[in-house]
Please model this.
Amino acid sequence: MEYDGAPKTNIESNICYINFPNKSPNRSQDIKTDSGLSGQYNFLESKIVELKPSIPVHITKPNSMKQAAAWFLNNFSGRVLYSVKSNPDKAALTHLYDAGVRHFDVASLNEIKLIAELFPEAKMYFMHPIKARESIFEAYFNFGIRDFSLDSFDELEKILQITNNAKDLSLHIRLSIPNSHAAIDLSGKFGILPSDSIGLIIKTRT
Model:
């Protein structure tokens, strides 16, 4: 789905992709012009009327996705992980990979298999704090994942047991941080309270 020129349409995996190029060469200009692209919206409307699709339609701007990802990678000093569950579409993942994203937050065995299939050289982080034993086994022994998230002593014991107390693990403690201003506050669903985390942190390092 890489192209130059006029908008194009592709049919892949029972999904209709309607892609069109950016009008501007840089990210800031692209954001400004997106709000006034009446011509492109007219094109999309006419295209949908023409196709009368009976399958899902994805409207994508590949260059915008790549520019946004590249901008974030260049301006964030830490390690950037893309959360696959936020958009596991293969086309979207490929655009992000092309932009330079090489680290992926995976939360299930299906997501692990997806990233392994698309990007064998990418690094995956199994960041769901509650994982099935079978998934831990598959992730560690069959997909080479060494980074695991947890927020409880039970999960730590499970990871160590399944991996035979492996010494090459990188364990990430998920903290519960109040976020009352978020549209959906998940601080009460996952994570250990900072006040309770010291013992768990010490245990992961022994």
Notes: Strands lie at 8-12, 15-19, 57-60, 82-83, 103-106, 123-126, 147-150, 170-173. DSSP finds eight helices and eight strands in the chain. Residues 1-9, 24-38 have pLDDT under 50 and may be disordered. The radius of gyration is 21 Å.
